[in-house]
Every structure is written in C-alpha cells, then in structure tokens.
Write a structure and sequence with these properties.
Distance between the termini: 39 Å
Mean pLDDT: 86
Low-confidence stretches: 9-26, 458-479
Number of strands: 8
Length: 564
Amino acid sequence: MTRPSRVSSPTPALTGLATLAGLLGLLPAQVLQTALVPVPVNLSADMAMHVANRVTFGQTEALVTALTGPTGLATAWIDAQLAPNFPADNPDVATLLTQISVPAAPIAVGANHTFLQLKDGAHVYSAMSDFQLAARMAYFWDRHFNTFGPFVSGYVTVVYAGNNSTEGQNITSRLEWVDYEFHRQNGLGMFRDLARHTFFSPAMMIYLDTVISQCNGVEANENMAREFMELHTVGPIYAPTGVANYGTNDIDTVAKVMAGWRLTGTGYAAPLVATFDPLQHCTFNTSIFGTPAIGAHQAVSGQTAIDALIDHLVASEACKDFICRKLMNEFLGDGSDVVYPLLLGAMKNLWGTQGNLQAVMGRLLKSGEFLTAGTKWTRAKTPFESAISHMRIWNGSFKRPTTGALEANRVAYLRNHTENIGESLFGYPTPDGFDLESNHQPGSSVMLLTFRLFSESYYTKSVAVPPRPPYENTGGLAFALTTWVTATLGAPANQDPIAIGTLFLNRAYGSKWTTTDLSAVSNSLSKDVNGVVQLLNPANPNSYAERLGQGVMATMSMNQGLLR
C-alpha cells in the first residue's frame, strides 16, 4: 500500500492571471493597489448576484433580491454567515442526512457506511444549508487539509478490520466525516484549531504516515512534517521576499518533534484516537527555523512539543501571509493577493496569534474590493461548484413533485453528475488536494455534460428507478419553471421566446449576456425537441415545459455558466 506522491513546490503558485484571460476578464494585474477601495453605498442586482455567487454555492433569485439595495443589507447578511447558528439551519438538511445515513458515532459493526454517503452529505449541506459560507469553508478546508479516503481505508482494512474491506470503509467513512464536520463547524473559527485537529486527525495520521513515524533506531518519517509546513501552515516560500520558510534540516527536526504518535481504539465503540508513545519519540533539544518569516523556535521533546510547534507556526508572519493569500484567491479572484496588497495587509492585521478566521474573512467579504465590480465573474467554478450552482439557480429540489417528500436518491443523482464532470469528493489522491485555481478547471467538457444533466432532468419523464434527478424526473423543475415564467411575465409574454430568453439570461447571469446569447436561447425556445419551429403554447403543459427546459439548457451551456 503506497501513498500517492506529488512533487513538492519550490515556489508558491501565484500564476492565476494568464490562461483564462479571454474567458474570465481577469483582474487588472498591471495596476497594483495604492489605496483601499471604498465600500459602495448601494449594491445593484448584478453586484448582489456577485456576492451571492462567491459566499454561497450559487445565487438564488430570493437571495439576490434580498441583497440588492443599501449595502448594509449585504453586510448584515454576511455577518450572519460569519457566525452561523447551526441549530437553526434548514430542517430539510437534517432529514436528508438521516435518510442518507451519514456515519454517526459510535460506528456499529456491519453498518456498511461508504464514501458515497460522505459525498452525498456534502452535497446536501452545499445545496440546502442556510449557512452557505460554513459549507463553502468546509469545502475549502477539506481541500486544504486533504486526505485520500481510499488510501486511509486500505490501511484501516488491514490494521483494524481484519482485511474486511467493507468494514474498513465503514470505519474510514466515519473518520472522514468527522474531519468534514469539524471543518464545517469550525472553518470560521481559529486557524490554530484547524491545524491542531489536522495533526491529530486519525485519517491524516494514517495518510501522512504519522502512525509509523518513530525514532527508535530509525529515521523519523518526514511526510507529515513536510506537508504540514508546505501545504497546511506556512508554505514553502515567503511571498513578499521570495525567501524559503524552512530547509531540509528544519523538516528533519519537525519530523522528530512529530514522531511517537499512535492510534488507539478499535474504530467502532472505541473510536480511533491519537495517543502519545514516549518510547517511539525522539529525545532532543534544538533550535529550528530562524527564518525571518517564521522566527526561531526551540524544539523540545515530549507530548506538549506538538502544541508548542503548532502555536509557533500559526502565529508566524509566514502562516498569516500564506493563508490570507489563499483565502483571497479563493473568494476574491486568482492573483488578487498580488493586485490588492493593502487589503491583504488589512486581513493579516486581524490574524492575531491563533488565526482569527472570522475576523479575516469578515474584512475580506465586507471590503470595497469584494463589493465592487473589479472581481465580478473572474472565478471559474470547480465541477462540484458547477453542479450545485446549477441546481440552486433554477430552484432545484430533492423532493418528489407529487408529494413533496424528500428523497435521498435524488442527491445521489447530483453526486453522480459531479463525478461525471470531474470531481470526486474525499477522493483526490495527493496531499495538495483538488486544484481550486480557475486556470486548472475543465471547460467545454463540463458544459457538454451539464447539458446532458439538464436533458436527463427534463426529458426523463418516467424514471422509476433511482437515482432520480434533483430537478424532478417527472418534469418537476420544468413545471416549476412554467409557474415561475407565467407568474413573472404573464400572458401573452409567456409565449414570447424573446421575453422568456431575456428572463432566463437575467436569472442566470444578471447583465452578463449579449444579443447573440439571447438569440441562441430564444431559438432553442422556438423549436420543439425535433427542431421544428412551433409556437409556445402554455395550454399544452407537457410540450410547454419541455420547451422551457430547452431554454434553460441553452442558457446554462454558455461560457458564463462556468464562472462565478
């Protein structure tokens, strides 16, 4: 059993300003910031859509309406997102998670939890939770602190499950879900807590070989030490100066500090927990780092050495710079840390010694840089973001249209789509996690497969076996569109392809569309499924619903559908 390897980065990845320039209309990198951007007094509908697209997994009509107007409406909503009241979340979330049977503690022997349940649970939170920013942070931190479920499961199967792969996945699913839920519930708390949880996470201890690292006559395993610094906390290079944050001797010393931790428990009634074994630990007292961005640290032996090391790294200038840049690139735009150095500095000033993520994210999301048009439509969606956002834009549902009952197999349909367009949650093999940079997202293939998703949703009228599309396999979304179009436009505009096409484009993209786009959508609305031009007739509900579905497919197949 070999853990997938990667090539360590000699320099930070600050190259997000090139490849997609034509599509993204990227940030004005040639003009660096000389003053902070003022916060606007009001937000237009377009800017409200931008805020919703970045803070959530996809704007909805109701949210855009709520955020349009005085900027205080948006900042008050952002404040609520920064301090989520989880017990008050959408009750449908808990209902679906119970149906899915996400792994709860303690794990029962033979419960047969799988990675599919983990993925479905993440889809439910991302599509339906009222606390969208918490779900976004869970997605962000799960990639930042990446583990590879199948690798962890392989180890657990051999060591704890008697070579029973079903039981191995049962235990591992619980380990991965614990990490995901920690990231969701604490992703806006203190970064120190996230870093500490990561080190003591059984899944991470297995994935990065902490469980086999020792100093009893052998060299300490360096995998956790290297990735904890390079990927999780400080990064390889301090970007402002280009100076390395650590060297090979530092990796060796940190590996010794981290050696001697083992997992105890069975994985079932006695969960796996990190336990210190002094017999496998290294005895030493030496200085490490000493670089300007991290500062000297006296590394000592013993159980408290880990907390001391984590405290030192998290409080360092290198850590605050590395994490704040990564958050800016994710929520503001690729390369925004270079374009907006004053905002970066303002965020770093709020970091403190433990990494106050609520304060840092609040400064970012309520900044003039975020709330003005400079970074609008400059982020490419990942496949997961694409799947969830398309559902949210058109008010898709996991409910059966005839009864209103929530159905977990509709979640499975959306999860299958996410994987078909290129992303498997909890399944990225290397420690650097799924690439979130815009330049590295798939393009035309996503649009084609998304067209297929909508086609199956609208035209599969009598699917009797799961998984069912979340958009209602009996035409539920299409009929919901019928109600929406009729209520919004009224007669006779609800028979006019131009009026309906304009409505669809405004719903999906605000003002980011052209007359050519409108022509494409209206043409799709003007023809039946066989390509024959026919008048739109609401009196024929099945045909009318299919034609509206064609219009949605044409709308979402445009380049803008790849952006947020």
